[in-house]
């Protein structure tokens, strides 16, 4: 292990903020009814409980890899809450609250981490009935920005009022696809909202190693796309700026780029060990004091919207839902190996038929190499 | 496997127009854009200029800038946004100006275009046809001359199609655009204007899964495609052998049955392609025949191809590219071999 670690730098905090670190108001809150506020809180809780459970499943070997949203929940949740049914969302791997907000089933989220083929998941699980259109998640970063802009171009060309929102990270902003997508978004003036969830770490690369730009938001200037820079741990700030951007997109005003400044509290994912490259816990303590969920809970309690009884009821309900989802996934059978040949191309080619048969023979303990004429396996 | 005449037999051939290959591309794009409003052509230089090869000439005036989209100069942007459109039910037809410019788009190609259908268990289809002129022999710069179809053929989830005549171009391009799979459509630019023939003016499609017999024969099977087909035809005029020429048309998936059937009949095989030899498509064809038709072989398979080098400069590009002679030598070699 290297002796060298990265000294962390605190990003400038001259961003848009409504709810301060102590849960105090610095501006007027967006208009949201009490049940909507409690709904957001419920999603915060659901995300933490679900991801903690998945982390445990990873430790016991049931799940191969898990990435946690811990400490960043306000960004995906505030963004997602600004969308309307039938809109499109392109996400990566730290947007669990956005999925849960729009009723993606917990079992589906867990099953996607257990490595089942998508066809198996669709057949064996009761799939969530979300009014939101989700793209599949992306692991190669930046790719989704370009695809999301293409999705928004399709809406623009068809004069539809649908909006596409894409979540990406600070690391993505160094990738070509980010710049290609932003450039197209500007040139074609598309109904897209591009959200950078800047948690300041791309695995082990800290933000000062990622870019020499003072802020990520200013990158949008190069593409003629208006931008906002907000406190990503403030659900109200993210929601308000996202809502404005969604509205502008829906009414023909074009794309907006939003940098949400937040902080990755934990590891990149369960295969990562941040002790190797992070220097100390000072920053984490600083950001822990700015935790988005604590902040929001303090506000809700001070307004009399949340009390101990309601909080307990929410936790009990979430615990039960998560336990049910885990049970559903545990009862799923593994994918048939044959599944790997599904959905490659429409129709079936000679190679596909042949290789399917070879695999079947291998599974049956037979020699797959005995076809010397290309005509099949009649022995 | 059938001849092109058989395959367009159900098309009205009373009305034909003399066309070259690039005008067949242009005519097909016109007809398809008019037929289906979800089709959009996008790329740079494709608007007012009409494409550097004029393949998109007149399209902007006829269909407007929402259907014929002049984009920024960005292959990754073109393919990536086209992928996003395809995910939303559109049928984009992106143009890559030259095959040698495709590499910046490889990420989008691998991550999104080829994979989305599988990743979503069939939920999201990617109906898009990426057109690109390929191949050498036009005295262009090195990145304008490449023939790297193997990269695409090695990728599951995408079709690779390559025509060699104007009437085939029209039928195969229309079929590609109408296919629910992503298609890489390779246009042999060396022969864009090299030949004309009467092409049916009505719409028609050709199967994306079938090879074409260019010429029947009994001594040697010559497997080839694209711009090399003309060399195959010239070569066989001068050899003392009855050569069966097969134009593969579909490089992925391959029409394996037709290939094995022909080699089983002739017992000899020559592969003619302009791509580099090592791990070029010829390597796969040779391996396939070795695995499934060895008993029929009367001689080793020979590959008449380009060399494993970067595409050379103008003065020696003809020495790199296979031609009638190289094809003929390969045929003579397999005819002369005795076990």
Strand and helix layout:
The complex is a heterodimer of chains A (379) and B (339).
Chain A: H1 34-59, H2 74-81, E1 88-90, H3 96-101, H4 106-113, H5 118-124, E2 133-134, H6 143-157, E3 164-169, H7 176-187, E4 192-198, E5 201-202, E6 205-206, H8 207-210, E7 227-231, H9 235-250, E8 256-261, H10 282-288, H11 292-302, H12 308-330, H13 350-363
Parallel strand pairs in A: 1-2, 1-3, 3-4, 4-8, 7-8
Antiparallel strand pairs in A: 5-6
Chain B: H1 4-7, E1 16-19, H2 21-35, E2 39-43, H3 59-63, E3 68-70, H4 75-87, E4 91-94, H5 106-113, H6 116-119, E5 129-134, H7 149-153, E6 159-161, H8 166-178, E7 183-188, E8 197-200, E9 212-215, E10 220-224, H9 229-237, E11 243-247, E12 250-252, H10 256-266, E13 269-276, H11 281-292, E14 302-306, H12 317-320, H13 324-336
Parallel strand pairs in B: 2-3, 2-4, 5-7, 6-7, 10-11, 10-13, 13-14
Antiparallel strand pairs in B: 1-8, 6-12, 9-11
Helix pairs in contact in B: 2-8, 4-5, 9-13
What do these coordinates show?
- The complex is a heterodimer of chains A (379) and B (339).
- Chain A is α/β, with parallel strands linked by helices and 379 residues long.
- Chain A has helices spanning 34-59, 74-81, 96-101, 106-113, 118-124, 143-157, 176-187, 207-210, 235-250, 282-288, 292-302, 308-330, 350-363; strands spanning 88-90, 133-134, 164-169, 192-198, 201-202, 205-206, 227-231, 256-261.
- In chain A, helix 1 (34-59) packs antiparallel against helix 11 (292-302), helix 1 (34-59) crosses helix 12 and helix 4 (106-113) crosses helix 12 (308-330).
- With 339 residues, chain B is α/β, with parallel strands linked by helices.
- Chain B contains 13 helices and 14 strands.
- In chain B, strand 10 (220-224), helix 9 (229-237) and strand 11 (243-247) form a beta-alpha-beta unit.
- Chains A and B meet through helix 5, helix 6, helix 7 and helix 13 of A and helix 4, helix 5, helix 6, helix 10 and helix 11 of B.
